[in-house]
Amino acid sequence: MKRSFTRFVCIIACLLFQQLTMAQGNSSTVEGNVLDAQKMPLVGVTVSIKGRSSGTQTDAKGHYRLQVKDPANATLVFTFIGFTSVEEPVKGRTAIPVILQEDRKKLEEIVVVGYGQQKKKDVTGAISSVGTKAIQDVPVTNPQQALQGRAPGVEVINNSAKPGDEPQVRIRGTRSLSAGNDPLYVVDGIPYAGNLSDIGTGVIQSMDILKDASATAIYGSRGANGVVLITTQRGKLGKPVVSYSGSYGYVQQLGETDMMDANRFIEMRREANRTIGKYNDNNRDSSDAVIFNATELANIKKGTNVDWQKLMISPGYQTNHAISVAGGTERTKYTVGLGYFKDQGVLKLQSYERYNINLGIDQMIGNRVRVGASLLGAYSLRNGETYNGIDNALKMLPIASPYDDKGNLIILPTGDSQQPNPLLDYVPGNRVELMKRFRLFTSLYGEVEIVNGLKYRLNVGPDLQYYNYGLFQGKNNTNLLIGGGDAQASKGNASTLAYTIENVLTYNKSIKKHNLAATGLYSVQRQTADIMTTNVRGIPVETQQYFNLGQALSVTGVTSSLSTWTILSYMGRINYGYDDRYLLTLTLRADGSSRFAPGKKWGYFPSVAVAWNIINEAPFKNQHTLDNLKLRASYGRIGNTGINPYATQGLLTRIPYSYGGKGSLGFVPGDLRNPNLTWETTTSTDIGLDFGFFNGRITGVVEWYNQKTTDLLMPHLLPFSNGFNQVLENLGTSRNRGWEVGLSAIIIDNPKGFSWKMDANVFRNRSKILSIGGGRSADVGNGWFVGQPTYVYYDFKKTGIWQAEDAKLAAKYGVKPGEIRLEDVNKDSTIDAKDRQILGSPEPKWSAGTTQRFSYKGFELSIVAFARIGSMIRSDFYSNYNTLFGRYNNLNIDYNTPSNPTNDFPRPNANQERPSNYQSLSYFDGSYFKIRNITLAYNLPDALVKRMQMQELRFSVGVKQPLIIAPYRQQWKGIDPEDVNVIGIDAPATWMLQFGLNARF
Where does the TonB-dependent receptor plug domain start and stop, copy by copy (predicted)? Predict the structure, then answer.
């Protein structure tokens, strides 16, 4: 009996082992392609096993690969935003291709609207979105640059090519004259202040731009100039996916500033002296000996001809690397990433280096509680933030030699104390400037579903910023050689601690055809900044640089400040929809700002928006041409704090004076106190039409808006006899009005061959000052004129150069032939202040941008371009480097002489440090068209990628800024007309050849 039982147990064990072996072996790999109705691959489709936590996503070619246990009974679930979910029983199959159909009820995508998300079809405000693909199309240093030319109504202008500089961003123009015009940036739901360069673009999933009052009123005063909502990458359902992206770019100067060579400069100096009768062409040798010093004459005999730009500028580079791991289950999703970026400028002393870390986690606790966190950390090093070595290089004479016979740098190559050798700055230790920044930005949340449809969410966003700045200039630094003095140094540091706490209550309910969503908010935001700077002169040992300021001979300045501000806010929003046809959004926000005086702290900002989904009306239900047709309108008010903390309290200024024969220090009011300051308020009206045709082949939007800003915060000029020259008041009124058109199209759609997709936008914004208070029509000192744009160029207008035949008429104006001829506006034969006029504005007549994407099998070509047409620019090159008196090198211009009676530029004159009214030479047509980037990429075939045990492998080569078409560049020999109001002398514009690699495992 015992033997039979033993045999029975053995048989049962064998059967169990066999079943276990079969169960383990009963696992197979299922793969396939997921396409849309046009047979185009869908990227990022979630493929999961029904009832289990395992899953994956489709790659760049719409392909997925998934290990499935029990393939006989398993079911795959395919989900993608904007498409109907599909369930496919495996039934032992190893290849399951799927075609997803567009769900018109979901309409494409989810849009971030602030304190939540909405389906695109339910949006009532003016919102533009830029996705991951568009952000990755161009190599950028910071997120703002990715918006350039991508969204209608959003204007991004680069200040310079200096590594680490941030561009200027304007959403629907400039509203305020003195207060801020920058938009609010919100990262993962938390307002983000300061330098956006701290965020690596590789971690950004999408950027949504809120433009009208209905969209921005939920952020109250902080959203007065528009809002940019930045959503970072989050973990997704599926096994861990390792992603890497890397690039290296070769950076070159876009083009040299056209300065005179040796022969041109020599002749220009001679002409400058001919003008004053100091040069005799009949005796050139003796005349040259008078106007050139011995060093210059010796170099002329040697044939010296130095291009100082080539000596100062060398190729730079830009490298960017990011690696991340992301994945998750149905209850836990995570992402971890590291990034490194460096931009070495074409000027050796300028560079920007950044290290990034990003962490994100979302965790379900039970079925009703969700918590999560995201962390963005950055540490950056910026060299040469204020360095401008190209300035001295452009002025240096081409007949000056940089080195002596032994190869040593000559301190004063021409003997002129105002022209030190610009290469001295490159001597190690002569000039050291370093900014170190550390930032830790965190977004924490906890969300609980109290009952079905009712949720409470707590957002907490601590933000820590710290910087340490040092500048050392040795006695042989060019700045000190010009100004004189001992070595000097500056040391500064600042810490900023900010936090945001938000309590958000949301309720969503659907009853038959009625949809109701309500949002309530109570929040507080506070920021404290502690800043200190010390300046010294007379560093005894220059190797100490700025690290031992106590050893300096004298302290030239010590400053410190503490600044704190707080905003307390309440907000309520109601969204109502009926039958997916009629939509209504009501918003009211109240902000209390510590910046204003008691009784003026609170501002109230209401808005209303309506929308009509015409496409869901009965006449459109059975047609197949239109996919989307929605009419929107909104009206509301938003405010702007626009002043520094403590501005309403008045400031004291220290002043030295003599008391009892001894020096004493006292204090006097520095700014006149005005406790009546209140909010700038912008009232906005917006009308928009969203449309779509041919099953998504063509989609677009048309917008018209009108914004009126009242109670402008601006200085009111006072008579000096009062002891103050101005006081800050709420005085003026301005208006912004414009239209926008955005269009996306799939022009050619051939999944097996050639495809062509296009995004394009065009927009126009016109600002106008309606009043500036006190019944005045103009504030000439600030350049404000009623009826004109918020920024204009007000100056004399050059009409040509006085010619010899007009000598008698020129004499009436006190000038001679060869000098600049100005327009006599009032015809009184005198050029004075009354003849100044409005010449133009940097505000363009219209702007546009486009992205073209072409694909053929594994190849992809993208072209990004944008244009600004009808603006005016002012170029400092034509005032600082067009002196025409022979001391410094000059722009290689066509100047006037008796034998060359041109009307372009005046005759050189050795008695004038600059031509009279030289500033009138600085204004040019600022229109331009730029190809921002061209990228050619190749995706390796799926079979090869799988053989390498990878999900994706992509190689790319791109050219950044390969083409600029502009009158300033082609006609007037400028380099780049893109700048904010004034083309300054700074790091030269560049282009870049970049190679990239993207891989997923």
Answer: 119-227
